[in-house]
Amino acid sequence: MAENDQEKTEQGSSRRREQARQEGNFPVSREVSSFLTILGALLVLHFAGAWIFFGLSDLMRGSFHIMKGELTVTEVSSLFQNISYKFFLLILPALAIPVFGAVSYLLQNGFALTTKPLAPDLNRIDPLSGVKRLFSLNSLVELVKSIVKISVLAYVVYLTVAKEWNNLPMLMDADAAGAVTYIARTTFTIMTKTVWVLAVIAVLDYAFQRWSFEKGLRMTKEEIKEEMKETEGDPLVKARIKSIQREMARKRMMQDVPKADVVVTNPTHLAIAIKYDRSKADAPVVVAKGAGLVAEKIKELARANRVPVVENKPLARGLFKTVEVGMQIPVDMYKAVAELLAYVYRLKNRAAAH
Question: How confident is the model over 88-101, as pLDDT tens digits?
Fold first, then answer.
């Protein structure tokens, strides 16, 4: 097992990442969700806490005042609807708190909808698999993280309460509004400090989850090769196909050599066949070219089909480097090629005259 892990030195491929995403395997940190949820609660308490508190107080006082008199069934129904509507409006900001937790998943991995994790999996009820998960590195990290988090948060709460310890007896003489205000202020202080602690824990946990996720995606060199074979085909087969394609293209090219007007040579290493057909192109076209043995074959076919073979080193080199088969001659070579074709046409006219 250890040996196989050591062999997984390659980063996960894009295909493996996509498969993991389709299976619902994401580097998600629960601590980020906890942090954003507490942060949302803190923001609601800060911006809407007083409004909610006084709104609920007014609602309760108004309800009790109305209920002192005699009410009919219709009035009770209307009162209940009115109270329910006002109560819903008052707690509406608090209902936004769970949204912060949901947003954390979007921030970490974007929108990804998959039903794969909901599918039945017998491994989840397998006792052996359960024991392995229980004593895995992730479980150990989760245990240590929980102990550290609880300890740090307990210490933060202790420091805050210890600082306010001498003020607690004063609550006995305070009215209900003053006591609630004091408790709310102390709770807000504790939540503020808690958010800072959770922010640090969330950053560290997210970094660990990313590292653990990337480690799980690692592949061996053999797995990379196998995946390439599945997605792009066997390299040997691809090389063979390319070789066949090149051979077929060479054969088609050689079939056009007898139709050429002239073959320009280096004289020994290069050969470029040129044809000019005014009805098909505005400029001469390279119908074949090659170096080495291919050049020799082009010259052999040209001589066998009485196509003039002319030596012009600069032109041959320029055409070979800049013009592909099937392309027209570039403008900067018009003059040299025109002179060459004029020379060839003169030769053909003389031969025809004799």
Answer: 888 888 888 888 77
